[in-house]
Amino acid sequence: MPKPTFIKLPIDKKETLIRAAIKEFSRAPLFEASISNIIKEAGIPRGSFYQYFEDKEDLYYYLLDDSSKRLNKRFIAILIKHNGDLMETFIESFEMMLINLESIESRQFFRNAFLNMNYKSENTLTPGVSEEQLNTRLAEVVALVDRKKLNITDEMELIHVLKIMKAITIQNLIQVFAKDLSIDESLKNYTLEVNLLKKGLSKE
């Protein structure tokens, strides 16, 4: 996470560095990205960079965490709009993600993130569903879900439903980038999988 020096920077200087970082991480995945390119684009000395972040990984995961916070905020707003209907919320949230990926730079940034995803980036970019995180972002989601619309018995089962939905969402986003799918095709595939879960897979 950023050092206090970065937090105290004027907004315009923060945004200049963030834009430079997004440009570089859009050009190349984390392991190929260059601090030299970031500081050149941002117009800052190398020493200043290390006053703001420990290294390029620190900056990269800061960007992912910032994206995660915005995604979570939007997810909650959609969940409220759908009166706690979790499945409909996931479908609309996925559609909004696809629309936002229409920006070339945004698409390239997330293409590199998802196609080179590891455990840390997965858990930074998508809201966690472990018990330890129930008191943070997830707690608000859990509180807003209308459990009467789900075939679950308790909160722990809801946590596992969220884990399943998270896995489906990630895999579908990976397919978007790996196969360069259109919005319509991506949303069709995702909606089909969510509706299969809603119906259940076993016959009585």
From TrEMBL:
Domain of life: Bacteria
GO molecular function: DNA binding
UniProt keyword annotations, A-Z: DNA-binding
Keyword flag DNA-binding: yes
Name of the protein this chain belongs to: TetR/AcrR family transcriptional regulator
Pfam families on file: TetR_C_19, TetR_N
InterPro entries tied to this protein: Homeodomain-like_sf, HTH-type_Tx_Regulator, HTH_TetR
Segments of the chain annotated as binding DNA: 34-53
PANTHER family: ACREF/ENVCD OPERON REPRESSOR-RELATED (PTHR43479), ACREF_ENVCD OPERON REPRESSOR-RELATED (PTHR43479:SF11)
Annotated source species: Paenisporosarcina antarctica
